[in-house]
Amino acid sequence: MTSLRRWHRFIDRIPSQAYLWLAIVIFGASGAITRKLTEIGSQNLINGRNPISLCNVLFVGNICALLVLMLIYRQQWNKTALKQISVKNWLVLSVVSILSGALAPGLIFQALALTNVNNVILVGRLEPPLALALSIWLLKERVNLWEIVGAIAAFIGVTLTVILQPTGTHITNMPGFHLGTGEILAAVAAVAAAIATVIGKKSVSHVPLGIFTIYRTALGTVVFFFLALKLYGQHHFVEVFSPFLWRWMLLYSVVIVVLGQSLWFKGLRASTVSVASLVGSFAPIAGILAAYFILDEVPTLPQYIGGSLIVVGIFISQLGVMRQTRRVTTANQVNSTEVQQVESEMGFKGI
Q1: What is the pLDDT of residues 329-342, one digit of tens each?
Q2: CA 345 to each of CA 152, 336, 342: distance values in angstroms, whole numbers, following the listed order
Q3: How far apart are CA 228 and CA 236, in angstroms?
Q4: Would you tell me how many other CB atoms lie within 10 Å of the CB of residue 106?
Q5: CA distance 256 to 289
Q6: What pLDDT is recorded for position 158?
Q7: Which of 90, 168, 339, 347 is the most exposed place for a label (fewest CB within 10 A)?
Q8: CA–CA separation, 220 vs 317, rounded Å?
Q9: Is the pTM of this model over 0.90?
């Protein structure tokens, strides 16, 4: 009992930001880990096929994640909560689930098969500025100048990363302009994810998190399965029941899904939104470092140039977020002080 209490005291002393940073390291490394798993599968072929293909990783990994989510959020799936969701909301939720749960991850996994992990990570940074632009246009959200400048810098960085690539599967070959299929797929995935984010924020933000995540994962998995069958044929999932695949996918799900999300939510509970947003912005840096240490992918000059601009854009955006948060906090403190003064003058204190 004494050792257990010491362990709990040690856990309680860990700063909340430490959990966020550990979670970002895990999330950032997910792309490199996925590529490494497919390489392990290629070295352990079953009947001449890779049991840990990218499609199998996404499909089986989603099933494992779905099982974990059902254990965590099963209490939210009750008749009372489900009746409060209208038919229109279910339709919107279905669109969001297909975009973010099937189309975007499917395109990203296909991009991983065609280009290096660093390109997928950097091009994927198109999502935040696109989501910001769509939020301003469709949701009429008000943002400060810092966030706009940061988004523009990040967008330019992504653009330079793509157009300066010297090699790849090029479908466009203009002088000084090289556009690979993998980069295009990653960009389309970012567009799909940005659209899903804005639609979800506008129409289904009130849906309980457990219902949203389980429905999104389940529908996305089913849609992806049938799309893969249509595009690649029935033989594509022949090895889906391989024990070798499931052993790795269970480990993948425990580390990426369970441990990563648990650390993130634990850190998020004791952190401010601005701190969490700032830490989350370092995901691409963690991804590039993971690609270097796990896959020996050394960043190229275009990736250094584009990545540097993306990092600058991230810091500018986060500066705007922190200034906005500080302004709101100050306003709240002023209002609180004024209320206390009024209460003191009136001779009573509200409950």
Answers
A1: 665 555 544 434 43
A2: 50, 14, 5
A3: 8
A4: 23
A5: 17
A6: 81
A7: 347
A8: 31
A9: no
Q: Which amino acid is at 169?
A: T
Q: Are 49 and 238 in contact (CB under 8 A)?
A: yes
Token digits for 15? 């700063």
Q: Are 90 and 80 in contact (CB under 8 A)?
A: no
- pLDDT tens, 27-76? 888 889 988 999 999 898 888 888 888 888 888 888 888 888 888 888 88
* Residue type, position 289, single letter: L
* pLDDT given at position 91: 93
> How far is the first Cα of the chain from the last one, in angstroms, to the nearest whole number?
41
- Predicted confidence band at 9 (pLDDT cuts at 50, 70, 90)? low
